[in-house]
Every structure is written in C-alpha cells, then in structure tokens.
Design a protein that fits this description.
- The structure holds 2 protein chains of 2 kinds.
- By secondary structure, chain A is mostly helical.
- Chain A has 12 helices and no strands.
- The relative contact order of chain A is 0.14.
- The model of chain A has no long low-confidence stretch (mean pLDDT about 85).
- Chain B has one domain: MetI-like fold.
- Chain B has a two-stranded antiparallel sheet with strand order 1-2.
- In chain B, α6 crosses α8 (about 165-190) and α6 (about 125-140) runs parallel beside α11.
- The chains are: A mainly alpha, B mainly alpha.
- Chains A and B meet through α1, α3, α5, α6 and α7 of A and α1, α2, α4, α5 and α6 of B.
C-alpha cells in the first residue's frame, strides 16, 4: 500500500461522513424532544413514542407492513432460488443468453415506471387493488435482488463436490438436497433478508399498488408528511431505522459465520 | 457448465428423458418474469398509444397524440430538468464517492468492513425518512436556518427548500451508495503494485492517477454512474418533498397523471419517454467512455 493519507484528504472524508449522518442524527435526536417544535431542544421525553403506540393507524400500518413484506419475501426467495439454480446449474435452455441480462431489468427500470406498469396490468386484468396486488408488486420488484444475491453465492462455489456426489451415484435431487442446498443456504438467507429490507422500506411500488385498507408504514409517513413535519414521524422513523439496520447486521453476521 | 451436462446422464438411467426438474425450476421464473415484468411493461407501451374519455376511461384508439402532447415546452422543460438534475447527481456522487471508495479500499484490512458498513448503513433507511431528515435541516424554520441565525451569519432565514439545489442535495444523499459500492469493488481489486512501480519510476501523482488508476477503475465509474443516473432521473419522491412545485421532475408528471389527472395513457407515454431517454443517455455515456459495459466487467 502507498503512504499515509494527507490531512486535507482526511478532513474531506470526515465531512462526507458528517453529510451521511447529519440528517439521521438530527432526526433521531428530535424524536426524544419534549417540545413539538423540531429545532428547539427543550428536554428529554418519550412522549412521541407513547403517542405512536396509542395511534391505531400506525399500529395497523405496522401490521400490514409485516404481513406484506413477509409474504413477498417468502415468494421472492422461492422464485429467486429456483431461478438462480436454473441459470447457474441446469445446463442450457433455449433463449438463456437473451434472458440472462433481462432478469436484471427491474434493477434498471426506474421504480415509478415499474409501479405504474403493475398498476396498469392489475387494473386491465380486473384485479382490485388489495393486499394481493400489493404483495405481487413487491414480489415483482424484490425478486431480482434475491436472484443477484443467490447467484453470486452459487457462482462462487466449487462444483466438484456436486460432481463427486453424482459420480458416487447420488441422483440429482439427493445431490441438491445434501450438497448444493447447504452450500447455498447463506446465499438464500442473505437474499431473503435483502429482499425483506427492500420490501419493508419500499414506498414507490406500494404507493401505486396498495388498495384501500392496506396502508403500510411508509404510506402512513407519506400521508402525515403532507400535513407538515411532526415529532411522531421522528419517533416512527427512529424505530424503522433501528429495525432496518438490525436486519442488515443480522444478514452480515450470518454471511460471515457460514463463510 | 458443459462438463456437468456430460457427467449427469452417464450415470443416471433417466438419460434422454424429459427433465421434470428443469420444468419445476422454470415455472416460478416464468410466472415472475412474464406475468410480473414483461407483460406489465409491454402493456404500458401499448397503453401509451391509447387515449381516454372525459371520465378517465381508456379508449382503444391508437395514435401518437400522447407523445405529441409531451412535446409541449412545459413538459420538455421538466424532462430537461430531470436530465440535468440526474447528470449533476452523477457528477457530485463521483466527486464524493470516488475519494470515499478510495479511502475505504486503502484503509487497514480490519477497519475496511466497519467503514463499508458505515457508508452502507444510511442506505438501509427508508428513502422517505432520509428525505424527511433533510426537510428538518433545510426548511424555513429548520436546523440550518436556526444555526445560521444563532451564530449571526444571517438575519432572516434563507429559503433553502423548494428549489433545484435542495432536490440535488436529496438525490445525491439517497443514491450515493449506488456510486460508492461499484467504485469500491473496482478500486479494491486494483493491482496496487502497478501504482508503486509508476511511483518508483518517478511518475507524478496526477499522472499515475490519470494513466493507471483511472483506466483501471473505469468499469466502476461507468457502472456507478449508470446505477446512480437511472433512479435519480426517474425519482419522484425527492423532488416532491424537497422541490415542491418549483422543481418538478418527470416522475412527478407520471404520478400526477395517474393519481389526480387520471390520464393513464399520457402517464404511460411519459413512462416510455422516461425509459427511452434514460437508455439513450446511458448508451451515449457508455460509448463516450470508450468501453462497453460487458467488456468492462
């Protein structure tokens, strides 16, 4: 490695980190403020958290968020695993080369376009906007992320173990269950957690595909924001920040342990 | 891949029979890919040529009228704003992201995961919440104005929100990680001995950067730029929260046409224009950068 970092460079990097964390710190800080005026500190208090627990709209939105993200993640993980296996392990099939880059289309198409396309289809086919459309919308969006994660894992594994099992007479199913799947498991869990985190925080797809009565937490924040800022949002945001960051840390720990 | 195909049928009696496993694996993929991705996008393309009646119902008479309507200076100006805000987002993200990625790649091995985690963590926070954080800072009675008044730099609060600058700050903030991660991946993989030999041979730091570091990390720059440009260009939450009615972007046209004007065909045409412009921009960019995406990988 080359020499030490110079002082101006260090200061620049510190400023970047300050830029990254300033909004978050301010947001969290004022969720514990006594006064409802954000910007003037008047003492520590948990009153905004208490008011959240008593807010029925928030509690039901939290429940909806969990239901939607858990269902969507389950489906997306299943589809993601089979697709990754299909692309990496199952020989060739017609059109594989064309399909390969297209699998990543959802990552390249702006989310708002993707969202209104889904809305269009649901409406034209005649499915009323509901939990079902919301979950399908999330599945459509997060599956690509799951596939990427699992494929990275699959491509990085040594295939000689699988070949050895096959040579020793294990059939395809046995080979998969005893060799491929255990190797793949950290990738699957990592993909699922990634999908869950993305689904939980998704706003755009939700905004267009949710029906009446299936409001999630981001939708509640959006609705409340339009009436101006409020410490309630700070408190909820702080909880959501904690949840997302813990999910990601757990994902990291699982990955490190198994590798 | 070919080796595996040769090996499998040799030992198994099912050689030559229909591969049920392949079908089982294929069905979920087909459902997801066809029903939830291809069909919706194609439908949007088709719908962009339709029109609507006074009640917002879709009339299946095909024409280019939605595209012609978009040629109005009002909409073209919004398209142009989306484009340059996207472009500036990429440039600022590069100026912030490159030194940051370089710093992390060069830091000691045991600190690398920690720094990486510190950079990625804000990305896991809901986009709305991050935009809200900036709202608290930038608004008229916001923290920055309070602070500037307290230290006596200004007498009257500044209007920091509801302009292109605020939108730009928000876009850079929420999409920076898309730039840092690909950059980190290429800088981290870089062959550092090349840099050392260049230095040993007496090359000036700028020359080393221009002729070695920059070409070696070009795939990361291209990848990061595309990953940053597309969502920034198509964003509608950030301009809506931080830009208000002064900094409308193309994503906001789509949103209003769907949610309030109820003109789905026009919204679809705007969506098609958004995608085509983004694709064209990327193609020109990749060509201009002198390497294809695939080749750079």
């Amino acid at each position: 490695m080359t020499g030490k970092n110079s002082w101006p460079f260090k200061i620049y990097i510190m400023l970047i980190f300050a830029f990254l964390y300033l909004p978050v710190v301010v947001l969290v800080l004022f969720s514990f403020n006594e006064s409802p005026i954000i910007g003037v500190w008047s003492g520590f208090s948990l009153r905004w958290y208490e008011s959240l627990i008593g807010n029925r709209a928030v509690v039901s939105a939290a429940k909806n968020s969990l239901i939607v993200s858990l269902s969507a993640t389950t489906a997306a993980t299943f589809i993601g695993t089979t697709t990754a296996l299909l692309m990496e392990r199952k020989g060739g099939f017609r059109g594989k080369k064309t399909m390969d880059p297209m699998l990543y289309m959802p990552l390249m198409v702006p989310e708002v376009v993707f969202a209104i396309s889904l809305l269009t289809v649901f409406t034209l086919v005649g499915i009323r906007l509901s939990f079902l459309t919301l979950i399908l919308g999330h599945v459509a969006f997060i599956t690509a992320f799951v596939i990427v994660t699992i494929r990275v894992r699959l491509a990085g594994t040594d295939r000689s173990l699988e070949e050895a099992a096959m040579d020793l007479g294990a059939n395809e199913w046995k080979t998969f269950w005893h060799i491929t799947f255990p190797i793949l498991l950290p990738g699957i869990i990592g993909g699922a957690l990634l999908g869950f985190a993305i689904s939980l925080e998704d706003f755009v797809i939700t905004f267009f595909t949710a029906g009446p009565g299936s409001s999630t937490l981001p939708l509640w924040i959006w609705g409340t924001l339009r009436r101006g800022i409020s410490p309630d949002i700070n408190a909820l945001s702080t909880i959501m920040v904690l949840v997302s960051v813990s999910v990601v840390i757990i994902a990291q720990l699982i990955n490190r342990k198994k590798l | 891949m070919t080796q595996h195909i040769k090996l499998a049928p040799a030992g198994t009696p099912q050689a030559g029979r229909f591969d049920w496993g392949k079908l089982f694996l294929g069905l979920p993929t087909i459902f997801w890919f066809v029903c939830l991705i291809v069909v919706p996008l194609v439908m949007t393309l088709i719908l962009s040529f339709a029109s609507r009646d006074a009640y917002g119902r879709i009339i299946y008479e095909w024409s280019f009228q939605n595209y012609i309507r978009f040629m109005d200076p009002l909409y073209l100006q919004i398209l142009w704003r989306s484009f340059y805000l996207g472009l500036f987002t990429v440039i600022i993200c590069l100026l912030i992201g490159y030194p940051l990625a370089y710093f992390i790649a060069r830091s000691p091995k045991n600190l690398k995961p920690l720094f990486l985690m510190l950079v990625i963590a804000p990305f896991w926070i809901n986009l709305l919440i991050r935009a809200y954080g900036w709202m608290i800072l930038l608004r008229y009675e916001g923290i920055i104005n309070i602070f500037l008044r307290r230290i006596g730099l200004i007498e009257e609060p500044l209007q920091l929100m509801y302009n292109d600058g605020a939108v730009l700050v928000g876009l850079v903030y929420v999409f920076l990680q898309f730039m840092v991660l690909p950059l980190f991946a290429t800088i981290d993989k870089m062959d550092w001995t090349l840099l050392e030999s260049a230095q040993d041979l007496g090359a000036k730091p700028f020359h080393t950067f221009r002729h070695i570091t920059l070409p070696l990390t070009l795939p990361g720059i291209i990848g990061g730029s595309i990953l940053t440009f597309v969502p920034a260009f198509g964003s509608f939450i950030i301009p809506r929260i931080l830009g208000g009615s002064n900094s409308i972007m193309i994503g906001n046209i789509i949103e209003t046409q769907i949610k309030t004007a109820r003109n789905w065909p026009f919204a679809s045409a705007s969506a098609v224009i958004l995608i085509v412009t983004a694709l064209l921009g990327m193609l020109i960019y990749v060509k201009f950068s002198g390497r294809s995406l695939m080749g750079g990988d």
